[in-house]
């Protein structure tokens, strides 16, 4: 059993990660600004805190810290500030950082020169989030003293998708499934992240997952 802190544990992705970690018998600390009063489960507690108020003292006893942080609309620049803060409080510790990344910064060409968010089909409304998440990833990738893994979903990140337990893995390029779609359910994404936590294969790397 590991002690896993989850920033944004009650959000869309965070809820699936929390559920999957609990299903596997881990101790989960949900890090949220407003802890729900109606959720009572074994091995689940809540830490009332904004990400930017977290300190080394708050996280030093975790085996893993997952960030499912998503900046508010109009404040997308906060993605970079959030990453800088996490790197600062985690530097020099043994706590592993797992980041719920975005698909927009994945590449769509074999030469790794064109991001998904550079394509004509990418919605303008999503560009501020994707571009700023990409900047946060670049900062994390350049960090020297943090144990990290960054997991990007596919282009379509499905809240109501099936929990199949199956997925395929890639690195820097956007993946597609056998039907020509780039999608992954949040349930299968959570399985992939917990698989990585329990059996690390992508330390100091970004990788991506897609439905089969």
Summarize the structure in words:
The protein is α/β, with parallel strands linked by helices. The chain has a single domain, classed as Rossmann fold, CATH 3.40.50.720. Helices cover 27% and strands 22% of the residues. The protein contains five helices and ten strands, in the order E-H-E-E-H-E-H-E-H-E-E-E-E-H-E. It has helices at 12-23, 56-59, 78-90, 127-142, 186-198; strands at residues 3-7, 27-32, 44-48, 64-67, 96-100, 147-152, 156-158, 168-170, 183-185, 205-210. The strands form two sheets. The protein has an eight-stranded mixed β-sheet with strand order 3-2-1-4-5-6-10-8, sandwiched between helices. Strands 7-9 form a two-stranded parallel ribbon. Helix 1 crosses helix 5. The radius of gyration is 16 Å and the shape is globular. It starts with a strand and ends with a strand. 41% of the residues are buried. The mean pLDDT is 95. Residues 8-196 form the NAD(P)-binding domain. It comes from Lapidilactobacillus concavus DSM 17758. InterPro entries: NAD(P)-bd_dom, NAD(P)-bd_dom_sf, Polyketide_Oxido-like. One of its GO terms (molecular function) is oxidoreductase activity, acting on the CH-NH group of donors, NAD or NADP as acceptor. This is NADH-flavin reductase.
In total, the number of domains comes to 1
Q: How does the helix and strand content classify structurally?
A: alpha/beta
Helix count from the secondary structure assignment: 5
User: Biggest sheet: strands side by side, in what order?
Assistant: 3-2-1-4-5-6-10-8
CATH topology: Rossmann fold
CATH class term: Alpha Beta
Give the strand tally: 10
SSE topology string: EHEEHEHEHEEEEHE
CATH superfamily: NAD(P)-binding Rossmann-like Domain
Query: How does the major sheet shape up?
Result: 8 strands, mixed
Tell me which CATH architecture applies here. Answer: 3-Layer(aba) Sandwich
Contiguous runs where pLDDT drops below 50 for at least 5 residues: none
Protein name: NADH-flavin reductase
GO molecular function: oxidoreductase activity, acting on the CH-NH group of donors, NAD or NADP as acceptor
Domain NAD(P)-binding: 8-196
């Amino acid at each position: 059993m590991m002690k896993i802190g989850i920033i944004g544990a009650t959000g869309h992705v965070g809820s699936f990660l929390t559920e999957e970690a609990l299903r596997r018998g881990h101790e989960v600390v949900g890090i949220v600004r407003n802890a729900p009063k109606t959720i009572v489960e074994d091995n689940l507690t809540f830490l009332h805190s904004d990400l930017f108020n977290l300190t080394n003292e708050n996280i030093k006893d975790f085996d893993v810290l997952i960030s499912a942080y998503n900046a508010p609309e109009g404040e997308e620049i906060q993605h970079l500030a959030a990453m800088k803060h996490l790197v600062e409080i985690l530097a020099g510790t043994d706590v592993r950082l797992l980041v719920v990344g975005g698909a927009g910064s994945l590449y769509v060409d074999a030469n790794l020169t064109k991001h998904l968010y550079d394509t004509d089909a990418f919605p303008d409304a999503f560009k501020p989030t994707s571009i700023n998440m990409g900047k946060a990833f670049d900062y994390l990738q350049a960090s020297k003293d943090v144990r990290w893994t960054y997991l990007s979903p596919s282009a379509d990140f499905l809240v109501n998708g099936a929990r199949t337990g199956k997925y395929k893995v890639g690195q820097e390029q956007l993946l597609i499934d056998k039907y020509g779609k780039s999608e992954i359910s949040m349930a299968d994404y959570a399985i992939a992240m917990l698989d990585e936590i329990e059996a690390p294969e992508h330390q100091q790397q970004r990788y991506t997952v897609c439905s089969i």
